[in-house]
Amino acid sequence: MALSNKSYVINRETDWLNFGIVDNFYFENDNMCLQNKDGKCGNFISYSFDSGEIGTIWHRLRIKSKLPENAVMRVSLYASDSLSSDIHITADSDKTILIDDYLKDESIPLSERVRLLNKFSSTIRYDNCYDVPLLSLKGRYLWIAIEALNYKDEDLYIESLRLDFPMDSLLEYLPEIYQRNSPPDSFFNRFLAMYQSVYDEMSDKFDRLPE
What we know:
- There is one protein chain.
- By secondary structure, this protein is an alpha+beta fold.
- About 20% of the residues lie in helices and about 30% in strands.
- The chain has 5 helices and 12 strands.
- It has helices at about 15-20, 100-105, 110-115, 175-180, 185-210; strands spanning about 5-10, 20-25, 25-30, 30-35, 40-45, 50, 60-65, 70-80, 125, 130-135, 140-150, 155-165.
- The strands form 2 sheets. Strands 1, 3, 4, 7, 10 and 12 form a 6-stranded antiparallel β-sheet that branches. Strands 2, 5, 6, 8, 9 and 11 form a 6-stranded antiparallel β-sheet that branches.
- A hairpin with a 2-residue loop joins β3 and β4.
- The longest helix is centred in the C-terminal third of the chain and has 22 residues, at about 185-210.
- It is globular and about 55 Å long.
- It starts with 5 loop residues before the first strand and ends with a helix.
- The mean pLDDT is about 80.
């Protein structure tokens, strides 16, 4: 069975810094860490991940992290077939802009750039997620933002992020009757995604076994 076979993986300090903007996190052994900052958020927002194809339906996001009790990690995701924004970023703006250019513009306060995805109505959000099917995200490009709050003396850390694409559902391996009228984000597809996550994990372990 051939499932999703393309991935972006971020698991080193250089990866986090090259793939996006980091604010209020520090790095230890390649983990992105957050201390108790008296209510200050740790933020990461990625530059665009490119699937290479218009209309891509993204498959799955996995985040390996350790969250102390009462800590919050909010993940926001936005997908589009265009690298340009579909809204005016500022009130006096008379043109749309390239999202990645906005994120890299150091003349704009960092606090505004890391919260850019909040401006898009189609952004989806998850709290304290570790493994998320992305069946409702469609577009060649995808951006990810992570906002974290830690209220404990124990550090919060994020070890890695893995983004799989394109969508590959177990529905494709069932009789045709099950495939009718089942859009990518249907309840049935989401139900199957739970079992597919288990299958993906087992496949990854087998792939890492020595030959």
